[in-house]
Write a structure and sequence with these properties.
By secondary structure, the chain is α/β, with parallel strands linked by helices. It has 10 helices and 8 strands. The radius of gyration is 17 Å and the shape is globular.
């Protein structure tokens, strides 16, 4: 099985009538031979998780992931709705957009609600309020729940991301890294993201999971960038789908 842990069914995928068009997104996943994709809503202060749920309803290739704002009204209720009403399989935390510290105590009941509802937790990583060390703190609250660290701690905290994943075996690092392609070259279709290989070498491929960040980049572009690392067939099989299948219980 092959899968993409992070794709956004955002406004760029609306049809002529203004409705979200899942088929447009899945066509990009088809280009990379992806069987399933974890799909998130438009990133905005008040995310429309219900609209996403309706757009992907009954499509087995689409695993919904609700964007939860911990400082909004009743975020725990939103998590429960995500699981029970909207058919979601995970939640996403975006501290960089919603302006909170990801390891603030207000977040704890949110991720505990995800755990209690059997949802996977994905977290945007970066500097300051979403630093990998903070994400490690969150992962330690829910040690039996898989946590995916988006961007692997990039742009400047890959080492901290690796250390957080070493200390918390429930953390996987997500390969949504082409937005940083200028670290390795000017052309995202030619770059060799060597720091991803460092993560694989230090953690093992079992804690690395493929993600594209579509539509910012096409899944095939990220696939090809990782293939240029020449990690080997076994490692690629884990990264490009087997790990996601295990995390989301698809195997």
């Amino acid at each position: 099985m092959r899968g993409d842990f992070e794709a956004y069914l955002n406004d760029s995928f609306r049809d002529e009538n203004g409705k979200l068009d899942l088929d447009q997104l899945l066509a990009l996943e088809d280009e990379a031979n992806m069987d399933v994709a974890v799909i998130m809503p438009n990133t905005q202060p008040e995310p429309n998780n219900q609209e996403l749920g309706e757009a992907i309803k009954d499509n087995p290739r689409a695993l919904g992931c609700a964007l939860i704002h911990p400082t909004e009204a009743n975020p725990v209720g939103q998590v429960h709705k995500a699981a029970t009403e909207w058919g979601m399989k995970g939640i996403k935390l975006m501290p960089a957009v919603h302006k909170y510290n990801v390891d603030d105590e207000i977040v704890k009941p949110v991720v505990e609600a995800a755990r209690d509802n059997g949802l996977i937790v994905s977290i945007h990583s970066g500097p300051a309020n979403c630093h990998p060390t903070r994400i490690g703190n969150v992962a330690s609250w829910i040690p039996e729940t898989p946590v995916i660290m988006d961007h692997m701690g990039f742009p400047d905290a890959l080492d901290a991301g690796i250390e957080a994943a070493k200390a918390n075996k429930n953390i996987s690092l997500g390969t949504t890294i082409l937005r940083f392609h200028r670290r390795w070259g000017t052309d995202p279709d030619q770059v060799v993201p060597t720091e991803v290989k460092k993560a694989v070498d230090e953690l093992g491929p079992e804690q690395i999971v493929f993600g594209s960040n579509t539509p910012e980049y096409r899944p095939i572009q990220v696939i090809n960038a990782i293939r240029r690392l020449e990690l080997g067939d076994d490692a690629e099989a884990l990264i490009f789908g087997d790990n996601l299948a295990r995390i989301y219980g698809l195997a």
